[in-house]
């Protein structure tokens, strides 16, 4: 699949500022069922659906499956408010649109203001920086995406601290509830809820400690296994304990106690100007 040719057609027809490929195709983890995910950045307003359809239909062997795709899952789609789906041969391509001014606003809020809560992107806006850093640039008028990328490193210490302040209390509370469910045999569904919450909070913190923007990937285990600074037994937890999590409640409780100790150590080092 020549995605660069597709990007060139979209850029030419719709006068796009930049087009990037992100997700599994960009990070080389795609399988034969993976969609291709494109984000099209426009200088001003997103072209209407009629113009977009004409653009897609100029491609060979294309089927336009959906325009203005509805957000049925209720996910935060701030970074891609307009979404289309097309198919070329047997390959599904998801195409999202946003404005360059929105991209700059998000980067400014995170890099300069160190804010992780703002209206332009309410839920985990820093994941967009992970997208910018790992995406494959297919078209980039006036080096717009490249200039945004150049602002991402080093990750500001204040941004790291903001993420840890957000998720360490969640980790502490969730691990306490997890242990309570385990000790009282409350039930597998409640235990699973607090386990997922504990894992999620721990992941946010581990990426910060390892100086990585959260990639927001479904294949998160692969990213975790690449981290260099991790709590004891992380890989044992992922490979041995987690697949049979309810049978391994005691060992999982102990693992998360070690995670909390690990984070406390790095928080203390950060307070002394080290670690983060």
Describe the structure.
The protein is an alpha+beta fold and 276 residues long. It has two domains: 147 residues, Beta Polymerase, domain 2, CATH 3.30.460.10; 115 residues. It is built from ten helices and six strands. The chain has a six-stranded mixed sheet, sandwiched between helices. Helix 1 packs across helix 2 and helix 7 runs parallel beside helix 10. 30% of the residues are buried. The model has no long low-confidence stretch (mean pLDDT 94).
* Main beta-sheet annotation: 6 strands, mixed
CATH homologous superfamily annotation of the largest domain: Beta Polymerase, domain 2
Overall body shape: globular
Low-confidence stretches: none
Strand proportion, as a percent range, falls in 5-15%
- Give the C-alpha Rg: 21 Å
> What's the helix count?
10
Predict the CATH topology of the largest domain. Answer: Beta Polymerase, domain 2
What is the annotated CATH architecture of the largest domain? Answer: 2-Layer Sandwich
Return the structural class: alpha+beta
* H and E order: HEEHEEEHHEHHHHHH
Mean pLDDT level? 94
Instruction: Tell me the helix content.
Output: 40-55%
> How many separate domains make up the residues?
2
In the CATH hierarchy, what is the class of the largest domain? Answer: Alpha Beta
Distance between the termini: 41 Å
Say how many strands there are.
Answer: 6
The strand line-up of the biggest sheet is 3-4-5-2-1-6
């Amino acid at each position: 699949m020549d995605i660069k040719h597709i990007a060139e057609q979209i850029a030419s027809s719709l006068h796009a500022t930049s087009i990037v490929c992100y997700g599994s195709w960009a990070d080389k983890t795609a399988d034969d069922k993976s969609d291709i995910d494109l984000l099209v950045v426009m200088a001003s307003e997103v072209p209407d659906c009629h113009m977009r359809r004409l653009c897609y239909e100029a491609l060979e062997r294309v089927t336009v499956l959906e325009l203005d795709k509805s957000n049925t899952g209720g996910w935060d789609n701030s970074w891609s408010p307009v979404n289309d789906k097309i198919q070329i041969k047997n390959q599904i391509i998801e195409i999202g649109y946003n404005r360059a001014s929105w991209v700059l606003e998000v980067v400014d809020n995170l890099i300069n203001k160190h804010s992780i809560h703002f209206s332009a992107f309410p839920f985990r806006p820093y994941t967009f920086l992970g997208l910018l850093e790992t995406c494959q640039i297919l078209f980039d008028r006036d080096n717009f995406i490249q200039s945004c990328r150049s602002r991402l490193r080093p990750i500001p210490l204040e941004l790291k601290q903001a993420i840890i302040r957000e998720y360490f209390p969640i980790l502490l509370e969730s691990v306490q509830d997890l242990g309570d469910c385990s000790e009282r045999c409350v039930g597998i569904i409640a235990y699973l809820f607090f386990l997922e919450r504990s894992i999620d909070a721990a992941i946010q913190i581990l990426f910060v400690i390892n100086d990585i923007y959260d990639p927001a990937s479904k294949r998160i285990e692969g990213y975790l296994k690449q981290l260099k600074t991790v709590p004891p037994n992380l890989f044992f937890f992922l490979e041995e304990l987690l697949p049979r999590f309810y049978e391994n409640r005691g060992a999982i409780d102990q693992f998360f106690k070690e995670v909390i100790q690990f984070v406390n150590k790095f928080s203390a080092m950060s307070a002394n100007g080290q670690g983060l």
